[in-house]
From TrEMBL, chain A:
NCBIfam families: dhsB, PRK12386.1. Its cofactor is [4Fe-4S] cluster; [3Fe-4S] cluster; [2Fe-2S] cluster. It comes from Streptantibioticus rubrisoli. InterPro entries: 2Fe-2S_ferredoxin-like_sf, 2Fe-2S_ferredoxin-type, 2Fe2S_fd_BS, 4Fe4S_Fe-S-bd, Beta-grasp_dom_sf, Helical_ferredxn, SDH/FRD_Iron-Sulfur, Succ_DH/fum_Rdtase_Fe-S. Residues 16-103 form the 2Fe-2S ferredoxin-type domain. This is Succinate dehydrogenase/fumarate reductase iron-sulfur subunit. CDD domains: fer2. Pfam families: Fer2_3, Fer4_8. PANTHER family: SUCCINATE DEHYDROGENASE [UBIQUINONE] IRON-SULFUR SUBUNIT, MITOCHONDRIAL (PTHR11921:SF29), SUCCINATE DEHYDROGENASE IRON-SULFUR PROTEIN (PTHR11921). Pathway: Carbohydrate metabolism; tricarboxylic acid cycle. Belongs to the succinate dehydrogenase/fumarate reductase iron-sulfur protein family. Keywords: 2Fe-2S, 4Fe-4S, Iron, Iron-sulfur, Metal-binding, Oxidoreductase.
TrEMBL record, chain B:
NCBIfam families: PRK07803.1. Keywords: Flavoprotein, Oxidoreductase. Residues 493-592 form the Fumarate reductase/succinate dehydrogenase flavoprotein-like C-terminal domain. Residues 10-430 form the FAD-dependent oxidoreductase 2 FAD-binding domain. This is Fumarate reductase/succinate dehydrogenase flavoprotein subunit. InterPro entries: FAD-dep_OxRdtase_2_FAD-bd, FAD/NAD-bd_sf, Fum_R/Succ_DH_flav-like_C_sf, Fum_Rdtase/Succ_DH_flav-like_C, SdhA/FrdA/AprA, Succ_DH/fumarate_Rdtase_cat_sf. Pfam families: FAD_binding_2, Succ_DH_flav_C. PANTHER family: SUCCINATE DEHYDROGENASE 2 FLAVOPROTEIN SUBUNIT, SUCCINATE DEHYDROGENASE [UBIQUINONE] FLAVOPROTEIN SUBUNIT, MITOCHONDRIAL.
Automatic annotation (TrEMBL), chain C:
It comes from the Bacteria. The keyword Transmembrane helix applies. This is Integral membrane protein. The chain crosses the membrane at residues 32-52, 93-116, 156-176, 182-203, 243-263.
Amino acid sequence: MSAAPGPKANGSAYTARFRVWRGDADGGELRDFDVEVHEGEVVLDIIHRLQATQANDLAVRWNCKAGKCGSCSAEINGRPRLMCMTRMSVFAPDETVTVTPMRAFPVVRDLVTDVSFNYTKAREIPSFVPPPGLRAGEYRMRQEDVGRSQEFRKCIECFLCQNTCHVVRDHEENKQAFAGPRFLMRIAELDMHPLDSAEESGLDRKSAAQEEHGLGYCNITKCCTEVCPENIKITDNALIPLKERAVDRKYDPLVWLGNKIRRR
Amino acid sequence: MTQVERHTYDVVVVGAGGAGLRAAIEAREQGLRTAVICKSLFGKAHTVMAEGGIAASMGNANPRDNWQVHFRDTMRGGKFLNNWRMAELHAREAPDRVWELETWGALFDRTKDGRISQRNFGGHEYARLAHVGDRTGLELIRTLQQRIVALQQEDHERSGDYEDRLRVFQECTVTRVLKDGARVSGVFGYVRESGRFFVIEAPAVVLATGGIGKSFKVTSNSWEYTGDGHALALLAGAPLINMEFVQFHPTGMVWPPSVKGILVTESVRGDGGVLRNSDGKRFMFDYIPDVFKEKYAQSEQEADGWYADPDNHRRPPELLPRDEVARAINSEVKAGRCSPHGGVFLDVSTRLPAEEIRRRLPSMHHQFKELADVDITAEPMEVGPTCHYVMGGVEVDPDSAAATGVPGLFAAGEVAGGMHGSNRLGGNSLSDLLVFGRRAGLHAAEYAAELGTDDRPRVSAEQVDTAAAEVLRPFSVEGGEPESRTENPYALHQELQQTMNDLVGIIRRASEMTEALRRLADLRQRSRRAAVEGHRQFNPGWHLAIDLRNMLLVSECVARAALERTESRGGHTRDDYPEMDRRWRKTNLVCELASGDGELAAVDPADGQIRLTRRDMPPIRGDLLALFGKDELLKYLTDEELDT
Amino acid sequence: MATTETAGPSSGGVHAPGRAAIAARQLRTDRWWLAPAVTVTVLTVFVVYSTWRAFANADYYAAPYVSPFYSPCIATNCVNMKGGADLQIFGPWWGLSPALLVLIFPLGFRLTCYYYRKAYYRGFWAAPPACAVAEPHRKYTGETRFPLILQNVHRYFFYFALPFAVILTYDAALGFRDAAGHWGHMGLGTLVLLVNIVLIWVYTLSCHSCRHIVGGRLKNFSKHPVRYRMWTWVGRMNAHHMAFAWASLVMVALADLYVYLVASGAFADPKFF
Ligand code: SF4
Ligand code: SF4
Ligand code: FES
Ligand code: FES
């Protein structure tokens, strides 16, 4: 780190003040760096420059640098974002840019967090149930029928929504019971899949969403939607429809009555 | 003996992209205990970057399509250097591989009657690419990932343990394939997160690590593409073929620096985009080679007529094959007629109404808006060639995907060579992953199942120690003496990329490649002094220092093979030998480790680490040859080949 | 929220063991507090105003206009509305404001509305105040328990909202009369009621429950082309549900205020024709 004075403009390049969290599970701190920024760069470039010049062992995850793999999730000035899709031009040259790891997950080192929570949750969602008696190559689905689920399949699994959702971000103890927006959306995706045969096989995704995956914890405050880099309307198109589907099953008096009678 | 975490599996798959996951699924479905190792997180593999689609002759868009037509297109694209048996299997099996994805939950775009929609692409005679908008690769990875989860759920139901028979080791890097005599006995690697070592004992190892793009400065590939599988195979004693063939995509972004190399899809040109130099000249008309003269328009007026009325106009020269366009752009830039950031202009803004551009090219519009602050409906893009794909790779048996000469080693996907010959068609890589991923998984499982329990190869402690010492080296490099100052791995990597880009890039000359080999030798020496600070826990500097070994090995393969092949064909263009030569058609250049068994250190810097030999390919089977006209075959095959 | 106790947590949430040790509970540098502050202000003003007006039991009818707070008017103590929706279902024993009898329905509709829930959970309960801004509660159970589990009844309020919208449409139509009851006239009040009812309709029809009922619940759209078409329309409106929610909230209060001003004689309704 240089003791150089604050930012100075120099053609298209300038020196920016970065505060990057460094440390691991045992502790850490925000460290200041002065680092060169060139025109057209994104935050991930600056982190890479720090790595190559001032902090060889600065840990960071990334793959595609094009917002397609969802690896480089972090929090920049307190907002959960992809580092590769955050252009430096959105900051004033004299602004301090603070970069921290995602704060809902255990930290591994520096900007890298342990996101295994998400993989655990992924496993708890029952998979697609293929329609019995339909062989590969015989599937027929209309575009209008696959459209809804296709939107959810745009997900790049950056886990920013999981990180931002206050249900687990602010309440560690809810992690057990709550699948998180990304995986509730996965349930919605399968429930809206035109050929999914879960129901025929005795699995009711709608009530399972509420009873086993914690749909009720979601108070539809839409932070997942706000941070999703793929602009998926998670709350409006997946979570609220899923809540409505659960109501169909659980709070619709006619359905409830029907079930009571049938069970006898 | 070194402290390592030990596991035992039947099949280990290195790499978790399309090919790796498909192989793992197959091995597990055969009932074998399978491990998948990925360098990144599960589901982040480079396959997600594929946009266009999966080529498979399902005939949904055009009922005349069938595997023979697909085979023919593939051979033409690869300039007949393809391993014809692989091309045949690929064309035959691709439709089944796509359909099977649907039974695992994939949702492709649909035709009106509810079948999988197929789109047109360069080099494919009929609309053939199954796709999901422009994110087909993501769909493929997600589907395979979710299939793996489904299998794990089955196991959980059966035994209470998700990872009973199929386990994914995330963020782990394999640095050595271990052997017991001639046979594979397992892999050695480290956990990126903790820096701890692990050994997985397994009689069968499937390499599915993808490509080598990170050896080049301008590339559309991610950091993972450091040629790991190529190097692992070499070090295990398996040969590589066709390493001189590297595909450069003509249009990658050149600015801003952060995204240099990222792909600009071919559809931009297909939808009317034109290339101009700094003088505003539409230069492609000057670069139409003689063989294509009758097929391409000679004037702007004629070219512009093609989009609306292709029957009565010839194609615009912007739509020449990828290698031709890439070379043309390269020449313009070298002649100084380049855009401000060293590319040329690709313009659709003056060609289509803004509304139309947004509708047809949504992701390109978004990509330029977000990353470059360029509104492609109002201003031209700046583009230049970018390293995209390596056709060369591990030499494999076409049916079983088994690597030559190393029992128990298999390879599939980009890391395997032969399938695409000298040039790959768009859409053929995703289908390649599925077809040969499955075959590799199947045959690896069969191979492992046939071994009795006492017949299993064993991992020797000595090999583990050597492997561990190799990996730990960057921590113990001492500076001090003036002639042996330590090196920064990042700086070495940058020099390597610059060397490959400048000297073994899109246009090649003997003198430059000789120079490249010299520099590579120098870098190899210096890389032994690459030192890192910090500790083993998630230390990217250390990881890079280790990956350098692999990049240097494959770079040398590329340079040596490219120097040897004195013709131009597909992804290999020689300034000093600009013509395709029929006599070279059936020859594969084979790269092997010069020192024999896995030893690198003892090699004399002047000779390098790679020994190059020539190997003739088996003649193409008669019924497959009969799919082509005699006139066409004459362009590729020598007279003697045609007579027999 | 109702099911959370407020306390100053120091070891939970973003400070839970294992997470990156960052002292600040949030690091946002933008004006994240603006949106919740505006929500709280506007909703508070509305609640205060509407409570006053609901209990006032006066100045809610200025022929031919009726305040939306008092329609339908279903007690005998309602003023005579000259053909309006004064139904006298409740006898003379009801002495309080007739507005209290019906307001529960629109109130319940809005209270359980998915958008308003977001707004007041964020604004009033700070759960969360803004994205990635830590909330001040020690425990959180969301809508899994009583009473918030009752939010699931939203669709029944939606059903009730439909007849209300019809009645208010009728009221707006009556606005085309003059004070004596002759048709073919129009004043500024007519326009106010018209705008109000249009906003109420778009707000009601863009409801998430509505979207679900008209088509969202289907698995195969292709088998129900008409409902698919309707779902698409509702979906398009639904994308602006937030805007409609605010606009109609403000407008309903303005409509009432207008009637109040005219009825109390503070303002004379300008007649167009
Ligand atoms: S809308 Fe629900 S799932 Fe999304 S962030 Fe808010 S509480 Fe979490
Ligand atoms: S839904 Fe959006 S925010 Fe959540 S993981 Fe997927 S892409 Fe990321
Ligand atoms: S690096 Fe892939 S999303 Fe940022
Ligand atoms: S009224 Fe807002 S969601 Fe129903």
